[in-house]
Write a structure and sequence with these properties.
732 residues, alpha/beta, Rossmann fold, Isoleucyl-tRNA Synthetase, domain 2, Isoleucyl-tRNA Synthetase, Domain 1, 3 domains, 7-stranded mixed β-sheet, 4-stranded antiparallel β-sheet, 26 strands, 40% helix, binds zinc ion
Length: 732
């Protein structure tokens, strides 16, 4: 019955986790008599050790799971590992760089195997780290996004989309990272404000003398266009003005001569031109800009691709060929100036797009890619939320969700990387051109009229597969888990991936299963340090969750992550805050130790104390603490039902520390001296301790389980984790 003098989490936590594993309670058994409660864990990227953000989601989800398990629901918390396509490839590339290699030197098959090995090694490490944090998930059901069953489901979804005409291959302007050499979705680019120049360039009209020096001042034989990227003029195939712009009415329909290379280009009118930008006349470079591409389509302008996938100039006169875009820009500006085409260069602050990983400026390129027509899926996904089939916590994310969904554009799902699920497409080629597209995982028969078959080498955007995670992980459509647990109860994740992931899960799940994937979306905030700064290696303010666990225990870290932070709010964490919760853990330990000592030295020397007491024997102090406990049980239960975890923890903290320890335990010392009161007082001490550790268990599972294991009471369960949640009793 006795416990050691000092609370040492290092001596307890591993032992307790083993106890849970041995008990079999982590393994979910479907029981039709119980209500299901299911959380599908956001699959962790298997490309490195856990960071503090992981500790946040493990804590919050484990709180929900442990609470619902004690409410006697049939809980399933299904862990998963994500191959995390581009993200993992970027991490792996950095590893290669350290060895002086690049991925382009390694054959694709070999590269795939190398990255596979890398993720499997990480996967094991991550699993052990989750255990250290106390995650009470069902490891027997752990899933990996690249396992056969999952890929099958992903392929099925792609086929369905293709059959329904919701996926297509298109030549479009896409976001290209020249460094990583892959297309990126609109969500994978960041915007940076950059100081640059706005160059004003004269384009002379045809049939006028092109030697400007002989023209009179003020004559209208040229048109001035403004651009931030003069090098792209080599790909100009037109000039566009707004039809409402009176300044340029007489130019429309005429032909201009492209400076330096003398290409004849038409002047066209398009509503897409912003009259307020620059001079109101813009150069049209269809291969380098989304709007220009659209104007070119309207007016059947030529498309000349002048920037290659390596970010260097191509299809341009020899003196520019092979230059980087920046070197080409310098050369062009110099030549324009020398030849008198440059009207002026203004300082200009503008927004540029960069790769979210390497910050390289994004090159908008024309490329053949696979797209999902997302609007019809978005419509259904908005309806589901409108009808309240899915609720957001905090609620204000609903508005943000709608805003994004209303403005959604077709989703580019193909990536030019090997690490991922290959798009199951084959091309029947005739005379070097695609004759037929066949959706098939395996090599199909050669279609009639084709010379040979070509395999698609692009892989899916990783979010295309993780967007199907809730039903794929449960084994849609036939698995028992799917039938019993789907739709799941809660999706808990960071608000920063609301669009990347949550919105896509809602869209794809509704499309495939006809049902919402989850009832609640709980979004947590970002972790920041005590000065509200984002944590980053360069700032040196990163808190390593496992280092903290070794020092202060997982319980202290978990409590610190929840304490004081509501849903969606920034999570402020500091060593001091964790130490504060470690002190709370000490307090619980010491109070338990005191109670155990009192029992040992009393006549109640048994391991089987019945926690029943007669109301008529109770003192005022006894009644007060019991009523206080009851109140807390009611309000903590309500808080947990309402996802107000921080409020729940704060209430238990206040109650245990101040009302139980400071007041009642102090009073009990006197009562224990009185023979007539001793037994009742001991029972009340034990009872309040038991109920308190039950309430605390979801937050501090290790410490509370350790104390529970030592409680000398009758009718104990094998583990606290499967005990019944306390219920509120009438006031005494
Ligand atoms: Zn990049």
């Amino acid at each position: 019955m006795s416990i050691s003098k000092h609370y040492q989490p290092q001596k307890i936590e591993n032992k307790i986790y083993k106890l849970w594993e041995k008990s079999g309670f982590l393994k979910t058994k479907i029981s039709k008599n119980k209500k299901p409660f299911c959380i599908i864990m956001p699959p962790v990227n298997a490309n490195g050790p856990l960071h503090i953000g992981h500790a946040v989601f493990v804590t919050l989800e484990d709180i929900m799971i442990r609470y619902q398990r004690m409410r006697q629901k049939n809980v399933l918390w299904l862990p998963g590992v994500d191959h995390a396509g581009f993200e993992t490839q970027v991490v792996f590339e950095k590893e290669l760089e350290k060895q002086g290699k690049t991925r382009f030197q390694i054959p694709p098959k070999k590269l795939y195997q190398m990255i596979f090995g890398f993720t499997q090694k990480n996967r094991k490490i991550v699993r052990e780290q989750f255990k250290k944090l106390g995650a009470s998930c069902d490891w027997s059901r752990e899933k990996f996004t690249l396992e056969e069953g999952i890929i099958k489901i992903v392929y099925k979804t792609f086929k369905k989309l293709y059959k329904d005409g919701l996926v297509y291959r298109g030549k479009r302007i896409i976001n290209w990272c020249p460094r990583h050499q892959t297309a990126l979705s609109d969500l994978e680019i960041k915007h940076e404000i950059k100081k640059g120049k706005l160059w004003h360039i004269k384009y002379y009209l045809k049939s006028q003398k092109t030697n400007f020096q002989k023209q009179e001042k003020g004559s209208k034989n040229y048109i001035i266009v403004a651009t931030t990227r003069p090098e792209t003029m080599l790909g100009d195939t037109g000039i566009a003005v707004n039809p409402k712009d009176k300044r340029y009415k007489k130019f429309v329909g005429k032909t201009a001569i492209l400076p330096l290379i003398n290409r004849e280009i038409p002047i066209v009118a398009s509503n897409k031109v912003d009259v307020n930008f620059g001079t109101g006349a813009v150069k049209v470079t269809p291969a380098c800009d989304v709007i220009d591409f659209e104007i070119a389509k309207e007016h059947h302008l030529k498309i000349i691709e002048i920037v290659g996938k390596d970010g260097k100039m191509k299809n341009v006169p020899p003196s520019y060929q092979g230059l980087t875009t920046l070197a080409c820009r310098e050369k062009i500006v110099k030549e324009l100036q020398e030849k008198g085409y440059l009207e002026k260069a203004e300082n200009y602050t503008h927004q540029i797009s960069v790769c979210y990983k390497c910050k390289t400026p994004i090159e908008p390129l024309i490329s053949e890619q696979w797209f999902v027509k997302i609007k019809p899926l978005a419509k259904a996904a908005m309806e589901a939320v409108e009808k309240g089939k899915i609720k957001f916590i905090p609620e204000y994310y609903k508005k943000i969700y709608f805003h994004w969904m209303k403005n959604i554009k077709d989703w580019n799902i193909s990536r030019q990387i090997v690490w991922g699920i290959r798009i199951p497409i084959w091309y029947g080629i005739k005379n070097g051109k695609i004759k037929k597209i066949i959706v098939s995982e395996k090599k199909p028969k050669l279609p009639k009229g084709s010379d040979y078959l070509k395999k698609e080498t692009d892989t899916f955007d990783t979010w295309f597969s993780s967007g199907q995670w809730p039903f794929a992980a449960l084994g849609f459509p036939k698995n028992k888990d799917y039938k019993y647990f789907y739709p799941t109860s809660v999706m808990e994740t960071g608000w920063d991936i609301l669009f990347f992931w949550v919105a896509r899960m809602i869209m794809l799940s509704l499309y495939v299963t006809g049902e919402v994937p989850f009832r609640y979306v709980f979004l947590h905030g970002l972790v920041r340090d005590k000065d509200r700064q984002k944590m980053s290696k360069s700032k040196g303010n990163v808190i390593d969750p496992l280092g903290v666990v070794n020092l202060y225990g997982a319980d202290a870290l978990r409590a610190a992550l929840v304490f004081g932070t509501g849903a969606g709010k920034d999570i402020i964490i500091s060593e001091e805050k964790i130490i504060g919760q470690k002190r709370f853990a000490n307090k619980i330990w010491n109070a338990s130790r005191f109670i155990f000592q009192q029992i040992s030295s009393s006549k109640l020397k048994t391991q089987n104390i019945k926690l029943q007491f007669k109301i008529q024997n109770l003192t005022e102090a006894d009644k007060k603490i019991l009523n206080g406990l009851n109140e807390i049980i009611g309000s903590v239960t309500k808080d947990l039902d309402d996802f107000q975890f921080h409020n729940a923890l704060q209430k238990i903290y206040q109650f245990f520390w101040h009302r139980f320890c400071d007041l009642y335990i102090e009073k009990s010392k006197k009562q224990l001296q009185e023979k007539a009161l001793q037994e009742e007082t001991l029972k009340i001490l034990l009872y309040v301790l038991l109920q308190s550790i039950k309430l605390l268990h979801p937050f501090m599972p290790f410490l509370t389980e350790e104390i529970y294991q030592k409680l000398p009471i009758k009718n104990k369960q094998k583990c606290l984790m499967v005990e019944s949640w306390p219920s509120q009793k009438p006031k005494i």
